[in-house]
Amino acid sequence: GNSYNIPIHLWILDSHPFAPPICFLKPTVNMGILVGKHVDAHGRIYLPYLQNWSHPKSTVIGLIKEMIAKFEEELPLYSLSSSDAARQSELLSYIAKITEGETDMKSKSKIGGGKNEGCFNKITVVGAGDLGIACVLAVAAKGAADKVVLLDLSDGAAKGGTMDLEIFALPNVEISKDFSASADSKVVVLTVNSLGNAQTYLDVIQSNVDLFRGIIPAISHYSQNTVLLVASHPVEVMTYVSWKLSAFPKSRVIGVGANLDTERFQYILTNLLKAQVLAKDAWIIGEQGEDKVPSWTSCNLVANQMEPMAACNSREKVANRAMEVLKGKGQRSWSVGLSVADLTDSILKDKRKVHSVSILAKGCCNINSEVFLSLPCILGTNGVIEMVKLEEDPLVQEKLQSSAGSIHDLQQQLKL
To answer: Tell me, what DSSP letter sits at residue 152?
Structure first.
């Protein structure tokens, strides 16, 4: 029967109204924060309305109405005694710094004097579906990262597998709903896919784009020097979307692309077809899916005594056999997770290893549009260091140009 005035602070992003505001309680010096299912210790507010934000249906007025309803069920603030007022002032200072745009890590170091985690190899995985959890487990098993953060953006009622991760706590793995937990990540892996009621393939992709509009600006804000590694579908388009929304240099926005297919292709050549000499220069490139193509980075692939034409014919036969075997291999969450762990390991450890990943292909193979395709690249701490030169093959170039054309046409229909 009582009425309360609950002060709040809404941080409107540049991408508003397509992205939801970031919301905080703004307690006065005589108020304390009650941590609950809708509020964390720093006063950050989490509501289904924010998670399901969709322009133009979602509005700030609608958001405030949901806050009223949820805070009626569970009060987020309580009255402080005078002895707690000093600590509350410190918390208010922290919230002010966050809402003014400082990173979580900078604020924590100023307030708590704690160790700066910026020097650590930290990875954030966005999305707690099967793929997200598979990535967390694979990265943790690989041991490349000092800390792995899983950002669970789902509604509390649909947490799914994150409960098991909480029960069987893994060392160095943190689960959070707060974007600030991703601060100073060296690599951010994007695994989220929208599960809306889309009717067409274009609607599905547009739904994913709308989802990314609320994610990429926040991720970019907290980890301005990170490498974005995109595993969401379709990977070529969502990598392009991530690049546009983040405004990062092209070297630091990468799609998982054909890395898994390439590793399998090389394994099949070496172990099943006993063509080890071929395998070391063999790559799967182009568009993920049915339109992927095998290619090579050297023409000296077969024993020197063979004539060039015979060598090419032999290589083509072996490649065709390998591609047939590859067709029978699906891409399950755990296998993509292993591929993601492989890529993050190369980036974090600055291995300068060559991977076939989705990068901006403009300028390659006479492609003039801004599209992302899988091409062999050397990866290091700052993402793509250099693209490896492919053998010139008119057929391969034709297929790449065809993929680029269809992807570009699709991108032109999206609302970014």
So the answer is: -
**Third-level CATH fold of 122-255:** Rossmann fold (3.40.50)
CB atoms within 10 A of CB 288: 23
Length, in residues, of the chain:
416
**Separation of alpha carbons 249 and 50, rounded Å:** 29
pLDDT for the residue 407: 96
- Taking only the tens place, the pLDDT of each residue in 34-70 is 887 788 877 888 888 887 888 889 999 999 999 999 9
CATH classification (class only), 260-413? alpha beta
Provide the residue type at 128 as one letter: A
Q: What is the strand order of the sheet 173-176 is part of?
A: 173-176, 147-151, 122-126, 187-190, 227-230, 253-255, 353-360, 372-380, 383-387
- d(Cα 212, Cα 234) in Å, to the nearest integer? 13
Distances (CA, A) of 349 to 84, 134, 140, 352, 382: 45, 21, 15, 9, 11
Q: How far apart are CA 112 and CA 92, in angstroms?
A: 13
Q: Tokens at residue 45, please?
A: 């507010």
How many Å apart are CA 4 and CA 71, to the nearest integer?
10
- Amino acid letter, residue 337: G
How far is Cα 219 from Cα 229, in angstroms, rounded to an integer? 12
Rounded to the nearest angstrom, the gap between the alpha carbon of residue 125 and the centroid of all alpha carbons in its chain is: 6
Domain ranges of the chain: 8-79, 122-255, 260-413
Range in 161-170, 203-212, 370-379, 386-395 with the lowest mean pLDDT: 161-170
Domain at 8-79, CATH class: alpha beta
- Three state DSSP letters for 120-151: CCEEEEECCCHHHHHHHHHHHHHCCCCEEEEE
pTM for the model stands at 0.70
Cβ(12)–Cβ(18) below 8 Å:
no
pLDDT tens string 289-299:
788 899 988 65
Print burial letters for 79-112: b (CB count within 10 Å at least 16), e (below 16).
ebeeeeeeebeebbebbebbbeebbbbebbeeee
3-state SS, residue 316: helix
